[in-house]
Every structure is written in C-alpha cells, then in structure tokens.
Amino acid sequence: MLLALELSFWPATILKTLVVLMVIPAAAIILGYVFLLKMMAHMQSRLGPMEPGGFHGWFQLIGDGIKFIQKEDIIPSEADRRVFAIAPVVVLVSTFLLYIVLPAGPDLVVQDLDVGIFYALAVSSLSVIGVLMAGWASANKYSLLGSLRAAGQLIAYELPLVLAVVGVVIQAGTMSLQGIVHAQADGEIFGIGLIGNPYILTQALGFVIFIAASQAELTQTPFDMPVAESELVAGYMTEYSGFRFLFFFMAEFGTAFALSAIAATLYLGGWSVPFVDGNLANVLGPVVLGAKIMLVAFLIFWMRFTFPRFREDQLQAFAWKILIPLSLANIVVTGALKVAL
After folding, report:
1. How many domains does the chain have?
2. 123 closest CA partner among 82, 147, 94, 152
3. 62: which residues sit within 8 A by CB, 6+ positions away?
4. Cα–Cα dist 52/47, whole Å
5. What is the extent of the structural domain holding 126?
6. How far is Cα 246 from Cα 68, in angstroms, rounded to an integer?
7. What's the pTM value of the predicted model, to 2 decimals?
8. Which of 165, 182, 189, 340 is most deeply buried (CB count within 10 A of its CB)?
9. 3-class SS at 22?
10. Could you give the CA distance from residue 248 to residue 182 in angstroms, rounded to a whole number?
11. Number of helices and strands (H, E) in the chain?
C-alpha cells in the first residue's frame, strides 16, 4: 500500500505506527486463542474453553477481554501511583519497538536498520525496567521480590539469547534482518540452491538455545518462578487488575509473537519463498512468515504446557552452566568454519 500511495515521510510514519499498534493486540489474540485456549485445552483435556460462543469456544478470549476491561482499576493506597500506572505501559512499549525492524516482505518493513537484530535485542531488554517499576511501586513485598527475580532471570537469559544470534550474524555477515533473510534465500546447501540455506540446518544448536532463552524471557513455564502463584502470588503483577493487568498479558503474548518472528527470520528464512521475489513476495511473504511464526510459537507453548517449573537455583544454573557455555561453543565452531570455508 505504501508503495502504491508514495506517501511522504510523516503520513507514512503515522501509517506504519498504526499498523504496528494493531499488530500487537492481533498477535496477542491469535496466540492466546490458538495456543492458550485451544492447544492447551486439548493437551490437558480442559473442556471449558471449548464451550463459550458455540463453535469451538470462539467467544472465550473475547469474553476474557471484556472482563478485564470492565473490572475496577485498583491502585494500593501505599503504592507510588504514577510509577505503578506507567509500569505496564513501559513493558508494552518494549514489545511495540520490536516490531519496527521485523520484515514481512522485500518492502514490508517499518525500518530496515543495518543493525536490526542488535536493535531488536536491545529494546527487548527494556521490559526489565517496567518489571522493576511494577514490583517497586506496588508497596508489596511479594511483588518486589517477584520483580527482582524476574529482572535477574531476564538479565541472565539475555546473554544466551544474544550469543545464540551471534552465530547467525557471523554466518550471514550482516546484522540487518532483511540481509539475513536474503543470505538464507540466496545460499546453497552442498552446491544446491533450490530452497536456499535456512540456518536451522547449520545453526540448529543456536536455534534450540534461542527458543529456550525466549521461553525464559517470557517468564513462561518452566521459567515462571518470578510469577509462580504458589511461591509469590503473581509476582510483580500481584497488585494489578483490570486493563493494567491486560497490558501485561498483551505484552507477554505480543513479545512471544515477536520473538517467534525473529526466530523464524533468523533460522527459517523469514518471508522468503523459493523462486518468488518482487511484488509477489510482498503478497506471499506475510503468509509464509505467519506460518513459520505459528510453527515456532507452537514449540514455545508446547514447552510451556509440558515441563514442570524450575526452582530459582535450577533456573539460574541452566542459564549460566548450560546455555551460555553451549552458545559460546557454537560461536567458536561457527567462526572457525566461516574462516576455513
């Protein structure tokens, strides 16, 4: 649409901003409906989410959204009201910023930065600030302890997340997400370029590390100790209700969608389709990328529904003693092969 209209800078920027703002709730609805209410319901034999609205329980998520919106917005009397109110917005904004560099086609990207993956990983860490703000401002010891645990976890798992991406950057020779897509599309496997060279084949270890670290970044099971109800009530979200709690929900699922899109771009070729380019790729690209996103998201949520919760010491040990050494080994091997070949 932007190509056809040839908009000037500010109208184009406003249109792109509106598109990204619409993508976040849409992503939360898609993942929440497909995985949280349907896939998990089937895997755990839960009949409730299959009933509301008739056909396959289609109204369940809409009903939950209406419930959150109409609930009273409660702020504890001892809380820092301004910081308490802003914290969910800070977390949601960090999710919003992720979508700016995600390409859905040759020309379908808000901003193709030369350091796109560096930017994405940098802004994803901003959610730590919002989490700490929420815990500190709640005037609740459980919220504060949960926020400190969440911040420690997010910082610990940022390292393997970044290190897993380094292998892809070394192989592609660029930090641009569009450049990484083109490097995979134009690559060859043993001299054969029919499907390009999706990096899931050469960076399989990095992909596994990225998915595990993404799971921890989302504070989902088995990495949900900071918000585990049996331990800390609901962690830094304990005192939140109504639409402010809904902001945290949207941020979690919007970030899950964004991290799935990043993984699909880095390891599965993103929007690229063999033998398709130009305007046709702009049409098919979002569909192809969407299918890959749902595949990666399935793996993330499958882990969430399958594994038991880690203790806090196990959670930290897994990052520092297993994922980080493996990611460093992956970088060394990738660098050596890049130089040798």
Report:
1. 1
2. 94
3. 53
4. 10
5. 2-340
6. 6
7. 0.88
8. 165
9. helix
10. 34
11. 15, 0
Q: How far apart are the first and last CA of the chain?
A: 42
196 — pLDDT class (breaks 50, 70, 90): confident
Cβ proximity of 224 and 47 under 8 Å: no
**289 pLDDT band (50/70/90 cuts)?**
very high
Please say whether the beta carbons of 98 and 124 come within 8 A: yes
Q: Quick: pLDDT tens for 140-187.
A: 888 888 888 888 888 889 999 999 999 999 999 999 999 999 999 888
Q: Token pair of 263, please?
A: 């993984």
8 Å CB contact between 262 and 102: yes
Tokens read off for 216? 């921890």
User: In this structure, what token pair is assigned to residue 112?
Assistant: 């193709």
Please say if the pLDDT value at position 195 is more than 60. yes
Task: Give me the residue label for tokens 């919002």.
Answer: 130
Give the largest CA-CA distance in the chain: 67
Q: Could you tell me which residues come within 8 angstroms of residue 258 by beta carbon, excluding any fewer than 6 positions away?
A: 27, 95, 98, 99, 102, 120, 124
Look up residue 199 and give its two tokens: 């990096």
